[in-house]
Amino acid sequence: MKVTVIGSGNLGSSIIKGLASSDMFDPKDIIVADKSKENLNNIQQEAGVTVTENNLEAIAQSRMIILSVQPRILPVVMNEIKDHLKEDQVVISTITGVSISEINEYIPSNKVIRAMPNTAAVKQASMSFICANELEDEDTIFVEKMFTTIGKAIRIEERLMQAATVLGASGTAFFLRFLRAMTQGGVQMGFHPHEAQSIAAQVAIGAAALIEDGTHAEVEVDNVTTPQGCTIEGLNAMEHNGLTSSVIKGIMAAYRRISNIQ
Ligand SMILES: NC(=O)c1ccc[n+]([C@@H]2O[C@H](COP(=O)([O-])OP(=O)(O)OC[C@H]3O[C@@H](n4cnc5c(N)ncnc54)[C@H](OP(=O)(O)O)[C@@H]3O)[C@@H](O)[C@H]2O)c1
Q1: pLDDT tops 90 at residue 1
Q2: In this structure, CATH architecture of domain 164-259
């Protein structure tokens, strides 16, 4: 089975590398098209995929076509490919803020599925969201399976796609910024920066593992907070400085922004 990816930038290359190291695809059966020769050379060397600068040549080879170009480039790509797609070809868009119906305006006869992974796809640790007009359709289920090879994937209604983008894709940056703050605290207490970062990362992985089975996060917080101990002292100081409120405000600011992107 082959899959075509148009756009091998930040997100596209993460998806491609993740898929190339999965059991689902032989790397050479991943056909990558891009206008950037540099990106194509890099992805060919790093993932062993088939590359081309020609979008039409790329789409001719697969039934599933993943689009991972910037929103402003979408009209360019759609106008280029729309008259060359066969009716059974499925377009999977990772493009932020562009609805299924907007893409269907170019290709009314083709199935359009939206996928919102994040850049951890490269480590097969993405949180990906899949939406389509028909969530139980076999192609939608197949796409969910495909994104499961690069992390966790769930099918959601399209109305939740903007929220999914903020929580799942922007969320990577939010957590990394928190991790940097933890690192800076660690350095101030005496660790070297690389040690502090590695400690903060492992603590984050461990904290996530503790709630993987659905345990409420505050149950695990209680397990760490001895009465009158250092953890509650630290937590309360963070809350007096607005930690929870600041994170929610940041998430809602991102949500307002994405809801207004034209
Ligand atoms: N980064 C994320 O975490 C993330 C997460 C979720 C969704 N997204 C979405 O994913 C999409 C891609 O984002 P990105 O950050 O990966 O963008 P990017 O780094 O700019 O990559 C886009 C690639 O597409 C190439 N390109 C431009 N015009 C093209 C054309 N006509 N045909 C084929 N390729 C073309 C670009 O080449 P040039 O550089 O030469 O222009 C570039 O290599 C965006 O729509 C974004 O909203 C990103």
Answers
A1: no
A2: Orthogonal Bundle (1.10)
